[in-house]
Amino acid sequence: MDFPQYRKYNNDQSYFKITGYAELEEIKLLGRFYQHIKLQATMLPDRNFISDLLNDATGNITEITEQEFQLQVTEIINNKELLP
Q1: Given 2, 19, 55, 72, which is the most exposed site by the fewest CB atoms within 10 A?
Q2: Which residues pair with 9 in a beta bridge?
Q3: What is the total count of domains within the chain?
Q4: Going by C-beta distance under 8 Å and a sequence separation of 6 or more, which residues neighbour residue 75?
Q5: Which residues fall within 8 angstroms of residue 63, CB to CB, at 6 or more apart?
Q6: Separation CA 57–CA 49 (nearest Å)
Q7: Is the separation of the CB atoms in 81 and 32 below 8 Å?
Q8: Cα–Cα distance between 23 and 25 in angstroms, integer?
Q9: pLDDT tens across 11-34, in order?
């Protein structure tokens, strides 16, 4: 599998840039705020979470393109406030 891979939850509340089997960035919407999370998976549950995202284990994940990811992230950053 080539990286980075891009995913989103079907409810459009979280967008993921997966840069490896043990590393990702997430932009999460929380009302009028957003949160930027960088995860370095050092524990099995975190690695399983990334694997689930890559393999759509829940049925609630959509693969998106880099352009879709960048467009959504830009819109979020311009219209929401970063959580303190």
Answers
A1: 2
A2: 61
A3: 1
A4: none
A5: 5, 6, 7, 56
A6: 9
A7: yes
A8: 7
A9: 999 999 999 999 999 999 999 999
CA 26, CA 5: separation in Å to the nearest integer? 12
Distance CA 74, CA 63 (A): 18
Beta partners for residue 78, in sequence order? none
- What six digits make up the tokens of 10? 């079907």
Q: For residues 29 and 27, what is the distance between their CA atoms, to the nearest angstrom? A: 7
pTM: 0.91
Side chain identity at 8, as an amino acid letter? K
> What pLDDT, in 10s, does the model give residues 33-76?
999 999 999 999 999 999 999 998 778 999 999 999 999 999 99
Rounded CA separation 75/1 (Å): 28
Q: What number of H helices and E strands is found in the chain? A: 2, 6
The residue segments making up the domain with residue 9 are 5-82
